[in-house]
Write a structure and sequence with these properties.
This is Putative 3-methyladenine DNA glycosylase. Keywords: DNA damage, DNA repair, Hydrolase. It is an enzyme of class 3 (hydrolase). Its EC number is 3.2.2.-. Belongs to the DNA glycosylase MPG family. With about 210 residues, this protein is mainly beta. It has a single domain, classed as Methylpurine-DNA glycosylase (MPG) (3-methyladenine DNA Glycosylase, Chain A, Roll). It contains three helices and nine strands, in the order H-E-E-E-E-E-H-H-E-E-E-E. It has helices at about 25-35, 120-130, 140-150; strands spanning about 40-45, 45-60, 85-90, 95-100, 110-120, 160, 165, 175-180, 195-200. Strands 1, 2, 3, 4, 5, 6, 7, 8 and 9 form a nine-stranded antiparallel sheet that branches. A hairpin with a 6-residue loop joins strand 4 (about 95-100) and strand 5. Helix 2 packs across helix 3 (about 140-150). It is globular, with a radius of gyration of 16 Å. The relative contact order is 0.25. The structure holds a DNA duplex (13 and 13 nucleotides).
Length: about 210
Amino acid sequence: MRQTGERLPNDSISYKPVGEAFFKLPTLTLARNLLGCLLVKETEEGIASGYIVETEAYRGPLDQAAHSYNNRRTKRTEVMFAEAGRVYTYLMHTHCLVNVVSGEVGTPEAVLIRAVEPYEGIDLMIKRRGSMAMKNLTSGPGKLTKALGIHMTDYGRRFDEPPIYIAPGFAPEKIVTGPRIGIPNSGEAKNYPWRFWVAGNPYVSK
DNA sequence: AAGTAGATGATCT
DNA sequence: GATCATCTACTTG
């Protein structure tokens, strides 16, 4: 890990995916640890990557806001029951959202990646998003998947090898927590402070 | 700058 | 047929 706040040099980029052990932590810890890490996606169009700056934890059986609440096991949620480090993608309206599966096998928990700070492949992101405004490129869960080229075809893959993986980035100066976004109909769970973000980062969603 | 409305489609009951 | 872990464009000020 780099010094606090320090970004990687932008020349001679080479990524080293994290190991399997990175994911074997309690879900809330993993949601924190993912902040500052790079999310990398390789496609035929090229490589695109960004620093993760906002996440949310979803904790299976306990959590009314989770797709897997009450151990609900369907074709969609199946991968959440697998081992930590797998890719859980699902569709929300017209958008694809991406999660990191966490927790023990059989415990359906995951961390939603809500925002990243663009790092490599910015031209590609602009092309995919059809927008020039930097701050609008990856500042939301549906936006970042489009910018990075993450699709439903990534469902079930692992986050520790190409074409989609997590790599070490920078150490955030300050991490803030608060209630999660967009889950008004989930009873008590809507107040849990399970959203994590890098304080002051302009790419955090609103 | 902030708030609202409408688009949009798979998944599940 | 209801339910969304969203986005964009359009309003208002």
